[in-house]
Design brief:
Rossmann fold; 21 helices; 500 residues; alpha/beta; 14% strand; transcription; five-stranded parallel sheet; DNA-binding transcription factor activity; 4 domains; 13 strands; Alpha-Beta Plaits; single chain; 53% helix
């Protein structure tokens, strides 16, 4: 495809010199279409440049010194909304990338995968969208810019989606060789019914468009192709679409297909996923409350077994890998939240939360996820059991000895120990044989005895000193525990010369 266009003005915002040089080299290959009007190294310099000259678009790094790409996008979106942006990102910056899209980012490109064809295609698409570049069709493959919707004689269309499998991940040469062989077999098997192909670069998915009159015709060609490509099917992931009627946007349907490769997560026994035979199922319901209740009842191992049983029931089902992982993450979040709200959440558990989530997110098979969940809930059980041991109630008693003179209540104590106050009360009673208020009163009375025997403070002052605001209440508590009123106790102690 060629273009007749005005030059599209581009500002490069990138702190790495080598990346700026690479961008300039790629863009200047099409100098009749694009013009680089500036290069800056951070967001602050970009804003200064924009005050003097506005480009049609920016190519902007996410991670930069002084002002990063996200801050720049926020400012540009408010002040220069007519400037469109393509962002560059490293793999580790993807959370920033997701945030950037709310500021109207057109596309993103991963730096490790920066290629001239994809960058120029993205720039042309953006230029066309802004009306700066005008496409002139000369036929041939349209790539992602113009997904094929041709074949006027055909009444039904199919898409075959292929993605390099785990064996080929990172092995670029082997990927190209294997995909190349598969493409040759598709063309050979389908012959004149093969219409076109294009690549969804971001997801590394190759899409092949087939046009047929009858489903039986497609089935026969597919059997020929899969029979020839058995060896290659072991190294790739393949999805066969349902039939589409004429007029359906094949580009949109291709994008949907690219999102379905995670469904292979649950059944690695099949060579490919045929959506004509296997519908995509809704994720079965999971009783998260039961899981949370079990953990709260100190039965984390049983909670883990419930989740393992649930995951095991998904074997062979066409459900979304991402949805299942999100469900497991949500259950973990809710479990920890329940511990915070209804019992307590030991600091070690909060510290391990990120590691738990990472373990869930990085599994690459259902069996791996099952193993991760079992290990996580076993560890949760160990952490909570240790926290509920003797160490906790000793820390509570130490706290009361230090803070007896303050207005300590069950509610404030529960907040300081990150525990539910009703659970704290029953927990303390079961370990100490008395309630928290009873224990606190005994600590205060012991301190009052010392003050009554050794000081000349008034009874009101002593009550205030040990944490009581009401002298009358102090007197009642003191007499209940000692059998004497504070006044009588002081007189007897002074006669004997020591605390009774």
């Amino acid at each position: 495809m060629g273009y007749e266009c005005d030059k599209c003005k581009i500002l490069i915002v990138e702190d790495e010199l080598l990346v700026r040089k690479a961008l300039r080299y790629i863009i200047e290959q099409e100098s009749d279409e694009f013009e680089i009007i500036g290069e800056v190294t951070n967001g602050e310099e970009a804003l200064e440049f924009l005050e003097q000259s506005l480009p049609h678009m920016m190519i902007c790094d996410i991670m930069m010194p002084r002002m990063n790409g996200l801050e720049l996008l926020r400012a540009v979106n408010l002040k220069y909304p007519e400037v469109s942006t393509i962002i560059l990102s490293g793999y580790q910056d993807f959370e920033y990338v997701k945030s950037a899209f709310k500021y109207g980012v057109f596309d993103y490109i991963l730096k490790p995968e920066l290629e001239s064809d994809y960058l120029l295609r993205a720039l042309r698409l953006l230029g066309r969208k802004k009306g700066v570049i005008h496409a002139k069709d000369h036929g041939g493959s349209g790539g992602e810019e113009a997904c094929p919707e041709q074949g006027d004689a055909c009444t039904t269309y199919y898409l075959i989606a292929i993605q390099p499998g785990k064996i080929l991940q990172g092995a670029t040469n082997k990927q190209e060789l294997t995909i190349g062989h598969m493409e040759e077999m598709i063309k050979e098997a389908f012959g004149r019914f093969y219409l076109d192909s294009f690549i969804l670069k971001k997801s590394q998915v190759y899409i092949y468009t087939i046009g047929c009159f009858y489903p039986e015709m497609f089935d026969g060609k597919l059997r020929t192709m899969t029979g020839q490509g058995t060896a290659y099917l072991r190294n790739i992931e393949m999805i066969i679409s349902p039939p589409y009627e004429k007029g359906v946007s094949l580009e949109a349907e291709a994008q949907k297909l690219s999102e379905l490769f995670s469904y292979r997560f649950f059944d690695s026994r099949k060579d490919y996923l045929d959506l004509r035979e296997t519908g995509i199922l809704q994720l079965p319901a999971l009783d998260q409350k039961t899981v949370c209740d079990l953990v709260r009842q100190q039965k984390a191992g049983t909670a883990g077994a419930v989740l393992v049983e649930y995951l095991s029931s998904l074997r062979g089902m066409a459900v979304s890998e991402m949805a299942v992982k999100k469900l497991m993450e949500s259950t973990l979040y809710n479990t920890i939240f329940e511990l915070n709200e209804n019992e307590f959440c030991p600091p070690q558990l909060e510290e391990r939360k990120l590691s738990f989530l990472t373990a869930i997110g990085t599994t690459d098979s259902l069996e791996g996820l099952i193993g991760a969940i079992a290990a996580i809930y076993q560890e949760i059980g160990q952490i909570t059991e240790e926290a509920r041991g003797s160490g906790l109630y000793l820390r509570i008693t130490e706290y009361l000895y230090r803070h007896y003179s303050e207005p300590v209540t069950l509610k404030t104590l529960a907040a300081d120990f990150n525990m539910n106050y009703s659970y704290l009360s029953s927990y303390f009673s079961s370990h100490m044989g008395q309630g928290i208020n009873e224990f606190l009163n005994s600590v205060r009375v012991e301190k009052a005895k010392e003050l009554l025997a050794a000081s000349e403070l008034s009874l009101s002052e002593i009550a205030q000193e040990i944490g009581y605001t009401d002298q009358s209440y102090f007197g009642k508590v003191f007499k209940k525990q000692t059998g004497y009123s504070p006044h009588t106790y002081r007189n007897r102690a002074k006669r004997q010369g020591e605390k009774l």
